[in-house]
Design a protein that fits this description.
The N and C termini lie far apart (57 Å). By secondary structure, the chain is mainly alpha-helical. The longest helix is centred in the middle third of the chain and has 33 residues. It has one domain. The strands form three sheets. It has a three-stranded antiparallel β-sheet with strand order 6-5-7, with no helix packed on it. Strands 1-2 form a two-stranded antiparallel sheet. The radius of gyration is 25 Å and the shape is globular. The model has no long low-confidence stretch (mean pLDDT 86). Helix 4 runs antiparallel to helix 20, helix 7 runs antiparallel to helix 8 and helix 13 packs parallel to helix 19.
């Protein structure tokens, strides 16, 4: 045996003889992440209920678990905010994975309230002649059955319900709670997948128009997979650039203040090419989720094909979570790169506002029109993001909260207007709705006026806040484009109002379903929030301003 081999054996033996250092237990601040834990725990309970609870009782058990979890999680968010974790006690939890600060708590509260209101639309059940007098919801009776097959018809007649949507909804909400609070790139990606996968599944579960629903789910899944790939590539490049997944470390490398260098990545750390390409790819993934042009192509088809309760929840809560993550990325990780990303975001905001507003004019389906409306609103919100000021953050927070309730309320109204084929979403069928059902038409008109940004609605207060922040942040030309886009968008909102109140109803026109207490609650909350935030927004603007400071 050679001398080197003997030396190697002695070294190995000596190393083995050394005492093994203790492995530190993970330090988790359970109280600070209680809202997330409550929702995840409830989702797991919901899955167990599907296996244990008899079929006839599952709906009531799932509703009870979901409502209790959402209310408890919201109470936990409020308790954290009252205890100062949104301001003076803001910090990092879960070993650096999650931020507990003002923006995170504000957005988590918004997501939970939107989820609770959206849950009521999920739970809406009405009598269906095809189901032999059983009450049915908006979801397929048996998801695994081929559309139109004998097994599906038998499931409909038996009154089966896909109650799995309740734990899926809770898992989606859990991911959305983590997404805007993520404080490292790995947590960000995990949260993205946690809330995206349940949405892909729920989009395919429409009771009526199953094939269109499944097509929407496939499109959303495939394009979402591309967006996830871009996000993951961006994360890999940023890790190569900074040698860390942590937001704080990446920000230090960008600013040139980093102290420790990862020896394994010493050759690539600080490489600006990795930074620019990685940041660009990561932004592409986030802009896909908010539905910004040119990453918006999935939005109209998915909004049209998905079950309307899913569309309403997705249009509201996904935007809140994605914009929260985008704000944290730009304001915490890449503030030193603002002169590089601001021109890009300017261009994206302009084409998003104009593109969404102009294309919406040509739509003849109410859900597709609202889809393009959501695209235009993404552009308006980007105007506040571009401000790069504390007022920009607070205006975006307020806009997201206001927009969420208007959106869920509007889609809840869409579920009520029905014909023999299900929901009557073609605009021509809404003619004369104000004469058939004045109250439903009036409520929908309130939501449309809020989308248009008419004074005394939450939409006006939100647009005024983001445009004011953008103008003060040096983006006055962007505000001009935003005002023009708002004027264009007002045309198609007013067109629907005119169609409902000043057109003759069609003889074969749709009927308006009698809403249950759940749907009435969802619509009532939407109207109340729309009017309160429009008439007296100052308290909520101040609340958003107090919550608009990121922890670093």
């Amino acid at each position: 045996m050679s001398a080197s081999a003997v030396h190697s054996l002695w070294t190995t033996a000596a190393t083995a003889a050394e005492p093994i250092s203790k492995i530190d237990a993970p330090k988790i601040e359970y109280g600070q992440i209680a809202p997330i834990l409550i929702i995840v725990g409830a989702a797991i309970v919901g899955i167990l209920a599907e296996a244990i609870v008899p079929r006839k009782s599952r709906y009531y058990v799932q509703m009870f678990v979901s409502v209790v979890a959402l209310v408890a999680a919201f109470a936990a968010v409020v308790a954290l905010a009252v205890d100062g974790y949104g301001t003076t006690k803001a910090g990092i939890a879960a070993m650096g994975a999650l931020a507990v600060d003002g923006p995170a708590l504000f957005l988590q509260g918004t997501i939970l309230l939107a989820g609770l209101v959206g849950l009521f639309t999920f739970a809406e059940r009405r009598l269906d002649p095809e189901a032999h007098g059983n009450r049915v919801d908006s979801f397929a009776a048996q998801a695994a059955s081929v559309p139109g097959s004998e097994s599906e018809q038998a499931a409909v007649k038996a009154g089966f319900a896909t109650t799995e949507v309740f734990p899926l909804l809770l898992f989606a909400i859990a991911g959305m709670l983590i997404f805007p609070a993520a404080n490292d790139l790995l947590t960000l990606f995990v949260a993205l997948e946690v809330f995206s996968l349940p949405l892909y599944l729920m989009c395919a579960l429409a009771r009526r128009k199953r094939l269109m629903s499944q097509e929407a789910a496939v499109k959303y899944f495939l394009l979402g997979a591309f967006a996830s790939a871009f996000t993951l590539f961006g994360i890999a490049l940023l890790y190569g650039y900074a040698g860390s997944m942590s937001y704080a470390t990446i920000a230090q490398v960008v600013d040139g203040t980093v102290q420790d260098v990862n020896p394994a990545l010493a050759d690539t750390m600080g490489n600006d090419a990795l930074l620019l390409v990685g940041a660009g790819l990561l932004l592409m993934g986030l802009l896909f989720k908010v539905g910004a042009v040119p990453f918006h192509m999935w939005t109209p088809d998915v909004y049209q094909g998905a079950p309307t309760p899913v569309t309403g929840f997705m249009a509201a809560a996904t935007k809140v979570a994605a914009f929260g993550a985008l704000l944290r990325l730009l304001y915490v990780v890449l503030p030193g790169l603002r002169w590089d990303w601001r021109p890009v975001m300017w261009a994206v905001a302009i084409i998003t506002m104009l593109g969404g507003a102009i294309v919406a004019i040509t739509q003849t389906d109410i859900k597709r029109m609202l889809a393009y409306s959501s695209i235009a609103h993404a552009g308006f919100i980007l105007a506040g993001v571009i401000a790069t000021t504390p007022d920009g953050v607070s205006s975006v927070l307020f806009y997201l909260a206001a927009y969420s309730f208007v959106t869920i309320g509007a889609f809840a109204v869409v579920t009520l207007v029905r014909d023999a084929g299900g929901e009557a979403t073609h605009l021509s069928k809404w003619a004369g709705l104000g004469r058939r059902s004045p109250l439903v038409a009036a409520v929908f008109a309130v939501f449309l006026l809020a989308f248009a940004g008419i004074p005394l609605t939450s939409g006006f207060a939100g647009k005024f806040a983001v445009f004011k922040a953008a103008a003060e942040g040096g983006a006055a030309p962007l505000v001009v484009v935003g005002v023009i886009s708002s004027a264009i968008a007002a045309f198609f909102y007013i067109r629907v109002i005119v169609l409902m109140f000043f057109s003759e109803p069609r003889p074969e026109g749709p009927t308006v379903a009698v809403p249950s207490a759940l749907t009435m609650t969802a619509i009532g909350v939407g109207v109340a929030v729309t009017l309160v935030l429009g008439v007296a927004p100052q308290y909520f603007l101040d609340l958003a301003s107090q919550a608009g400071v990121f922890v670093r």
